[in-house]
């Protein structure tokens, strides 16, 4: 039986951290979606000094420091502010909800600056409302959470596409067009009790007029490895120790966090051999996702990552398993081939759905789950 999770409707920031089971979670939104080696080194040092040394890479390509205390928070902010990683105030921080493609050209860098400035002039939007600047030749962020997307059309023009709508509209002025789209969302009734998402509004049949341009076909999520822009390295469950980030900073590359639990080391041409990194695309750990779960998350009804790590070798290549500490499904809101959801009575098993869908089995004990998975996948093994 699933238990209704608590929906907070806002995202933590650095200036407005969120209380979790292991202390405050401090979320850093890397300016323009990138970190200089000095910034990465400062974050690693701050995580060690003011937190518990654990750093999460979020599904919106932000970094989260865990285990911060109210006593250490102020010094943490001062250390990060010295590296240009802190916004002037909470409101500016909350509005800067932007994912930038890690694969970008010089034009994208200019667009990121323009859009970041425009975000400070947005109307009051729900805390989860976000923007994606996805202006490589093919969109790569379509599975990442965003409400207003800037992409390219099949013939290379910049278009603005509301999430949930298959078509976009050519952009004449990025800042003005993004502002107009946000104002349309508000005026069209996209917000109820301070919450709302663009895709939900579009799903209600409320469609903005004049959107008739197809985006270029999107690309699949890349794997760890060497790309024309640099080297992608993955993190199991999107989590690393501060030492790993410090060692990456030492390599001297700009680091671009991605929404795929991977970091792009700009310009790197070799895979770094560092503890805590996943560089083999066939590593079974990449087939599983798991949230913080209990005890790190106060809503967690079961331990997640140890279970997921143990189950990973049982997940056939090409399939996905999501282990969720409750029905909220934070780590993977989309459907997975298999989803295990912790409940007070054990784990629910959902096949081909999300953590909120109806389970096919309930009350499974962690020790019984491997046999269930083996039975399910017997034809493939
Ligand atoms: S899904 Fe996981 S991280 Fe999210 S609230 Fe539930 S237990 Fe916590």
Task: Summarize the entry for a quick read.
This protein has 381 residues and is an alpha+beta fold. The chain is built from nine helices and 19 strands.
Structural description of this entry:
The protein is an alpha+beta fold and 381 residues long. Among the domains are: 100 residues, Alpha-Beta Complex (Sulfite Reductase Hemoprotein, domain 2); 97 residues, Sulfite Reductase Hemoprotein, domain 1 (2-Layer Sandwich), CATH 3.30.413. The protein has nine helices and 19 strands. The protein has a five-stranded antiparallel sheet with strand order 1-2-4-3-12. Strands 5-6-7-8-9 form a five-stranded mixed sheet. Helix 1 runs antiparallel to helix 2. It starts with 17 loop residues before the first strand and ends in a 5-residue tail after the last helix. 46% of the residues are buried. Bound molecules: iron/sulfur cluster.
SSE order, one letter for each helix or strand: EEHEEHHEHEEEEHHEEEHEEEHEEEEH
Mean pLDDT: 94
- Using the coordinates above, name the CATH class of the domain at 18-88 and 234-262: Alpha Beta
Second CATH tier, the architecture of the domain at 18-88 and 234-262: Alpha-Beta Complex
Distance from first to last alpha carbon: 30 Å
* Major sheet strand order: 1-2-4-3-12
Q: Which descriptor suits the 3D outline?
A: globular
Discrete helix count: 9
Radius of gyration: 21 Å
Helix content: 10-25%
Residues in β-strands, percent? 15-25%
| Main β sheet profile | 5 strands, antiparallel
**Under CATH, the topology of the domain at 18-88 and 234-262 is which?**
Sulfite Reductase Hemoprotein, domain 2
Output the structural class: alpha+beta
CATH-assigned homologous superfamily of the domain at 18-88 and 234-262: Sulfite Reductase Hemoprotein,Domain 2
Task: List low-confidence stretches.
Answer: none
């Amino acid at each position: 039986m699933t238990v209704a999770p608590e929906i907070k409707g806002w995202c933590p920031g650095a200036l407005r951290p969120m209380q979790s089971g292991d202390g405050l979670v401090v979320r850093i939104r890397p300016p323009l979606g990138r970190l200089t080696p000095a910034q990465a080194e400062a974050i690693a040092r701050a995580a060690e000094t003011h937190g518990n040394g654990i750093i999460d890479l979020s599904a919106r390509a932000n970094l989260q420091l865990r285990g911060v205390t109210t006593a250490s928070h102020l010094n943490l902010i001062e250390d990060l502010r010295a590296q240009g990683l802190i916004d002037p105030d909470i409101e500016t921080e909350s509005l800067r909800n932007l994912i930038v493609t890690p694969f970008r050209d010089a034009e994208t860098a200019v667009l990121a600056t323009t859009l970041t400035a425009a975000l400070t002039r947005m109307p009051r939007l729900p805390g989860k409302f976000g923007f994606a600047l996805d202006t490589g030749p093919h969109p790569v962020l379509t599975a990442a959470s965003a409400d207003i997307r800037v992409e390219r059309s099949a013939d290379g023009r910049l278009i603005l596409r509301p999430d949930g709508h298959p078509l976009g509209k050519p952009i004449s002025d990025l800042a003005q067009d993004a502002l107009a789209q946000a104002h349309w969302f508000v005026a069209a009734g996209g917000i109820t009790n301070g919450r709302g998402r663009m895709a939900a509004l579009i799903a209600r049949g409320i469609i903005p007029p004049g959107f008739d341009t197809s985006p270029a076909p999107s690309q699949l999520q890349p794997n760890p490895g060497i790309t024309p822009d640099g080297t992608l390295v993955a993190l199991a469950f999107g989590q690393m120790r501060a030492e790993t980030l410090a060692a990456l900073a030492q390599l001297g590359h700009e680091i671009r966090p991605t929404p795929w639990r991977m970091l792009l080391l700009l310009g790197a041409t070799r895979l770094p051999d560092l503890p805590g990194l996943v560089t083999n695309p066939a590593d079974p750990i990449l087939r599983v996702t798991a949230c913080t779960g209990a005890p790190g998350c106060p809503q967690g009804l079961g331990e997640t990552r140890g279970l997921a790590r143990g189950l990973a070798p049982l997940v056939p290549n090409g399939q996905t398993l999501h282990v969720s500490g409750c029905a909220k499904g934070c780590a993977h809101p989309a459907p997975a081939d298999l989803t295990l959801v912790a409940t007070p009575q054990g784990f629910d098993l959902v096949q081909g759905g999300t953590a909120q869908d109806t389970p096919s089995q309930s009350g499974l004990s962690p020790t019984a789950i491997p046999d269930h998975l083996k039975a399910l996948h017997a034809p493939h093994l």
